[in-house]
Every structure is written in structure tokens, then in C-alpha cells.
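Researcher: I'm comparing several assemblies side by side, and this is the next one on my list. It has 542 residues spread over two chains. Same procedure as the others: predict the full complex and return the structure.
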Amino acid sequence: MAGVSKRFGKVVALDGVDLEVERGELLALLGPNGAGKTTSISLMLGLQRPDVGSVRLFGESPERIETRRMIGVMMQEAALASELRVCEQIDLITRYYPDPLTPEAVMEMTGTTALARRPYGKLSPGQKRQVQFGIAICGRPKLLFLDEPTVGLDIQSREMVWETLRELVNDGASIVLTTHYLEEAEALADRVVVLSQGRKIAAGTVSDMRSLVVRKRVRCRTALRLEQVKLWPDVQSASSDHTGLQITTTNAENVVRRLLDADEDLQDLEVERAGLAEAFTELTAEVAAR
Amino acid sequence: MTSTMSGSRLAQAYWSETRYESLRMLRTPAFAGPFLALPVCLYLLFGVVLFGDALSKDPNGALFMFMGFAVFGVMGPGMFGFGVSIAVERDQGLLRLKRALPMPPAAPLLAKMLMAMLFVAIVMITMIAAAPAGHLRISAGHLLSLTVVNILGAAPFCALGLFIGTWASGKSAPAFVNLLYLPMIYLSGFLIPLPKSMQWVERLSPAYHLHQLALAAIGSPSQGAPLVHALILTGLTLVMTALAVRRLARVG
């Protein structure tokens, strides 16, 4: 996507966004609700056209069927035909592709072999997501679009999805993933793009994102009172539970020095950089405050 | 970089879409039950149980009864099969997903049309099986011509249903289809002849033109030229389909 803007009435969904996915790369698209993630995916799939800018898949228009034969899609809101069995559902979609996997192979990869004869409408929400994931990968896509792929999945199924995605990326496929689970982006993404209010506000690796945020987390076991620590300069927030005291700070060195001075018996001291969740919250909060 | 597909592989995509669309509808009792059973059940009720004795002495009446319920059987699968199912699939995002996937663009429409024609073929088989009880005297060749005309005659009703399905929501589509379907049954003159002063109303309905075309196909007296009826039905099919496809491309 190059310089893409898209407007729905008075609402600006995307405002001059550039987005590129490399071969063999997993790109996580993050952003709060209404940030423009779904609009970006719709434009990349050729379901909508940009008002300004251009969208290309493999150098071609996404509206060309020959181009779409190289992609796989898993949408969050799409309901498949409830009367068809799982094996029929997958078989139908494999027919759209020139060189697909067999339905049996897809069901094995997605852990749905035992559900093969079950009507799709009788599956649990998590099982439906597994089938939808199977449909997304059945055509051996070179580029895969996944919109919240692990919502509603149990831990085992989520692990299966993650494992399959890693294998696809290792085999050279590119993946665009939107997710609300930041640990999912942290575990899988080569690169993260953060959208907010239709604009790209940050892009880079997960560790680039973390380093954008100066906050750090300090944990320890101490006899110091929480109310007392909260009043210290450089302490942004503090809380305590059975594991001890947690402090968020922009100047970890000063806070640690003061902790050690104030409590000689202090134990289990840990300092860690902010995770993607903190980075994401801080970045999007900054944009919202502007 | 592009990905091409062989002609036979493309044909398989169309065939699978049609096969699974027909399976879906046959597995939906609320659709298959009324549209497969109702025409022959009503024919047996009116043509055999209630008026069988009178019709045994009235070959024209027996023919009118049979032709009327046969046309009635043509209308439902197309109008509801397209009108309601397209609207529901749009609501559920299924059409949008298939548009994003490399589904051949005409596949869902062609599949639904062939499904409707399969339903009409089943309706015709049941009607023909029941015909002796309704005292129908008609040659096998005429029955075959009638079946072909009625199967092809499903197309304009599919196009009308498609047009409604692209505008209405899944919840409102049955009401909108019924708004057209029910008056069409009573105002097309194929079940209840209208008084002369109202016969102009019949000509507004595609069911009237199909009825006349079906009568011509079996060599019975019909009103107007068969070619005109065929052109009207073809024109309606093309215009409604074009309008609906244009809207589908814009709104999904």
C-alpha cells in the first residue's frame, strides 16, 4: 500500500498510509478499535478501492483473480455455510486454487480431522475458527491475511495455529496478521506496524517498539509501604500483591538506588523493559491525546 | 507474478460450487420442504381430492390445473433461493470472504441458478408422477418440452430474487420476496383467471409470460407470440442480473 487514504463519509479511515510486506515476513498490524486495520486489509484484498494512493499484491491489482489465487484469507466476521460439513467446506475452497493441499491434509494440519463429517453450524466457536484457518491455508498461499486468527481458540489450538504460521513463514510465505493479543504479535511478528486514527504511528521490530518506550518495570519484595513509594519522584505508578511491589518508572536507576537505600532487606529485585503491551498503550495514548 | 488455472480445474470450481449449493439447500428443510413438496401437494389437493371428479370430465380444466401448479413450482426456488440466501450470505460476510478468495466471480450466481433449476426439475418429476391422478392427458414429448421450458423459466425468477437479495438484509428479504411472490401467484392468471377488465395486470408478471410460453410448448392455445414471451423473460433476466451484479460489486 502506498500513500493510501480512505474515507467513509466524514470519517477518515486511513490517512496516507504506506505498508509493505516482504517475502517470508510476518507483519503484525496493531491498533485500537477504529484504527484502520480492517480497512487496510479490505483494501489489500481488493474488496474496496482507495480514494488516494495505490494497493498492489505481487505487483498486480488485488482485484485480479490470478493475483488472489496466491493469497489466503481468514476474516473475523465471516460465517461459512452452516449446512455443509467441515470436509465439504474445505473441499469447496480448495477448488478455487490451482495447486491446493488435499482437504485431508488441511484437516490434519488444523486438527479438524475428527470434525470432518460434522456440519459447520454445529461446531463450537473455537472449532469454527480452526476450520476458517484451514480454509485460509488450503491453497498454499504465498501471502496470508489473518484477522484475529486465535480469538476463541483454546491454548492447544492456538499453539497449533502459531506453529503452522511459523512453518509457513519458514517456507517463504508472507503473513499479515491483526490481533488484539499483543503476546501473539510478540511471539510471531518479524515486524509490527501500529495504526491509530487511520495513521501509521510506528513501525519496526518488536524490540524497536519496546525501545520507543522509555518506561521500565521494577519488581521487588520489600517492607516499604506502597503509599510511601508512590510519592517518590520518577515513580509513575506502583502496586503491590502477594508477589511483592511493582513500580513503573521512566528512571529505573534512580528508583532502584532509592529502594536499596530505604530497605536493606529488599529481595528479588528485577528490572525489565516495557513489553509490547506497554509500548502499544503509550503510543496510541499519545496519538489520542494530540 | 500471477497464478493461472487450467480450464478443467476452473470447471471443477464451478461444479463444486453448484454441487455444494444444491446440497446446502436440500439439507435446509425450511427451504427444500415447501418448494419441493408444496406444488405437488396443492395439485393433489385441488386437482385430485377437491375437484378430481369434475376434472375427469374436463380435460381443459385438468390441463389448466396442472400447468398452473407447475408454474407455481417454478417461481419459489429461484425467488427465495436467491432472494433470501444472497441477503443472508451478504449479512454473514460469506460473499465478502468468497470475493476475497479466488472464487470465480460468476460461480455463486451460476450455482444458485442451477440449484433452482434442479429444484424445478424435481418439482416437475413429482408433478408428472401425480399427473395421472389429476386426469391429465398429454403426450410424453409435450411433457418433456414443458419440463425444459419450466426449468429454463426459473431464470427470470432467480434474477428477481437476486435483485431483491442484493438490496434487502437477511431479516427483511423474506418479507420483500413475499411482497412480490404472493401477488404474483394470484395476479398472473395461471391459478385463478382474472376478470377481463383486470387482465392487463397479468401481463406485468413474468409468471404470466412463462405460463403462456409453457402452454405454447405443449401445443395448447396461448395468448401472444411465444417469441415475445421468451424475449420479455430473457430481457427481465438480463436487466435484473446486471443491476444486481453492479450492486454486488459495489456493496458486496
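Model: For your comparison table: Chain A has two domains: 23-205, 214-273.
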